[in-house]
Every structure is written in C-alpha cells, then in structure tokens.
Amino acid sequence: MKHNIYIYILIMAVVTYLIRVLPLTLIRKEIKNKTIRSFLYYVPYVTLAVMTFPAILDATQSTWSGLLALLVGMGLAWFGASLFSVSVACCVVVFLLELLML
Amino acid sequence: MMNNKRAHSNSSWFRKGMKDGMPIALGYFAVAFTLGITARNAGLNALQATLASLTLNASAGEYVGFTLIAAGAGYVEIAIMELVANARYLLMSCALSQKLSEDVPLWQRLLIGYDVTDEIFGISIGVPGKLNPFYTFGAIVVAIPGWSGGTLLGVLMGNVLPLRAVSALSVGLYGMFIAIIIPAAKKEKIIAVLIAISFGLSFLVNKWSVFDSVSSGMKTILLTVLIAGAAAILFPVKEQEDDHEA
User: Fold this and answer.
1) Is the Cβ–Cβ distance between B181 and B62 less than 8 Å?
2) What is the mean pLDDT of chain B?
C-alpha cells in the first residue's frame, strides 16, 4: 500500500483538533461587537435545527417513525422534559412504531 | 473556604455532565457501530478504527476520512476534506469561547477542544449562564467510551446488532438537539422563528437535487452562516439579556 493508515489518521486528527481548539484558546476576551455577539448567540440554535431536520427522517428505517419521534420530542421538550427523557422517548417511539409497522 | 466551594461546584458540575452524557453515549454507540462497519470495509483493522475514533470524535469527518482512505487519496487531499467536513466545529468553538469565563485556564480549553462535537457542544451551550468546563468534562468521560467502543464493536461484530435497535438508537441524538432548541424557542419568539426557517431551508437544500453535489457538512455551515448572520443583522440581541444570564 502506498499510504500509511496511521499517517492518514494522524493528519485527520491534527486538522480536526486545530479547528476545534484554536477558537477556544485564541478568543479569550468577550467579543464586544454587537453583530458578532448576536451571530454567535444564534449559531447554536440554527445549526442544531439544520442538523436535526430533515436528517431525523432519514435516520430511521421508516420516515414516519422519524417524523413521529420529532413531534413527540418537540412536544415533551416544550413542556419541560429533561434532555435524557426527550432523547429516550424519541428512541422508544421509533422502536414501538417500527415494531408495529415493519 | 472559597477553594472548597469551587471544588464542590466542579464535582457537582462533573456529575451533572456525566448524567447528561449518558444519552449521548448511547446515541454515539449506535452511530459509531455503523461507522465501524464503514471502517472495516475501507480496510482498517479494529485498532486503527478505534484510534481514529479516539482521536477524531467526528462522525462526518471519520466517514469522509475512511472513504478517502479506501480510495487511496493523497495526504493533502484528506487534510482538506477534513477541514471541510469539520468546519462547523470552528463556528461552534467560537460560540463556546464566549460561553467560558476569561479565567478558564489553558489546559481546560485544550481539553474541551478535544471533544467539541455536535452533541457535547449542544449540551454545553445549553447550560444557563457561563459554562463550568467540568460539566463538559463529565459528558466527555461518558461519551468517549460510547464512541470508541461502538467503533471497535462495529469493526469486530459487523451486523450483529439488530437493525431495529440501531434504527431506534439513532434518533437519540436528534432527541437531544430537540431538547436543547425547543425550550429556548419557548422563551424567545425570534428563536422559534429561526428554528422554523432553519427546518424549512434545510429541508429544501437536502431534498432538492440541485444541491446534491454539496456535502452535508458544507450545507450545515452555509445555512448556519446565512440564517444566523441575517438574524444577527436584523434582530441584534439586546445586551441586558446577556448580563442577566451571566
């Protein structure tokens, strides 16, 4: 083989670590600029929303079980259920629905 | 004593992190298991695949990496693709940097940087006020064995875990995301609107074949920058809310 797999892994690990660690170590002060502050404030919600939908529909064997898990999860989270219970409830919904359907 | 008090709060944050890390570990196990199968198909052995998971902690990054290794890609090419696949972590780390007090020491920042994933980031940013790094450490300690152990077993055991179980476990991660964004949407109408817009645009970009050639990591970055950027310009956050939070 031309390439060494361990060198591949080393390169992948170094690049990935630098991406994560540079902002954390270089930006130590509070950013004062209002627009940048607002941008960073909105980033988590937007990025998590973008990653959740429509990906959740394709994560399961059936689109419907993914959709139901999404709706049940949103309902429970709205009424204050914890991270753990929302997460487990989504898994249970998919398991039960696919048990019935497939 | 101040020191005792701080040590006490560090350990209670650590325990809370471990608790919130449990569903992450479960979800990781399922995802990493399938990733392990990909790794084996790409020609990696159990040691190599586990090492990759221990050092990368990145599902898309590892998936891309394994496919490129299988294709015999060059070292520069793989470095660039990692940069693209993981660029969203740059945004997350920037946001996380604002969540830390200025006096958080370097070694703690280096340690957090080891495992800024979608999920660890998600729960860390969801903590009210400033982030105590020990919360993140607690979650990492629980999540890492799930991730690397899942990869290891995926390589070794292939398709032993029933498909139905993998299918159910794989929504656990999304359940966590939902549990983070929905309470914020309930508190602030603008966030609810942003989530709706994010869902809509994300659906469009992922289902419309015009965008098929764009990688999913790139789609996430572009949509995040576009939507959060527009919101920052149109609806700047009122300053007193942040002070109140801290």
Assistant:
1) no
2) 87
Give the number of A-B residue pairs with CB atoms closer than 8 Å.
302
Distance from CA of B3 to the nearest CA of A (A): 23
Residue numbers of the domain that contains A11: 5-101
Query: Domain total for chain A?
Result: 1
**Interface contact B232, partner A, CB < 8 A:** yes
Q: Which residue of B has its CA nearest to A76?
A: B179
Of B48, B207, B229, the CB nearest to A54: B207
Q: What is the pTM of this model?
A: 0.73
State the greatest distance between any 2 C-alpha atoms of chain B, in Å, as a whole number: 62
Residue B10 burial (CB count, 10 A):
16
User: CB–CB of A15 and B69 under 8 A?
Assistant: no
Instruction: Tell me the C-alpha distance between A96 and B241, whole Å.
Output: 42
pLDDT digits (tens, 9 = 90+) for B104-122: 999 999 999 999 998 899 9
Q: Is B100 helix (H, G, I), strand (E, B) or coil?
A: coil
Could you give the ipTM of this predicted complex? 0.85
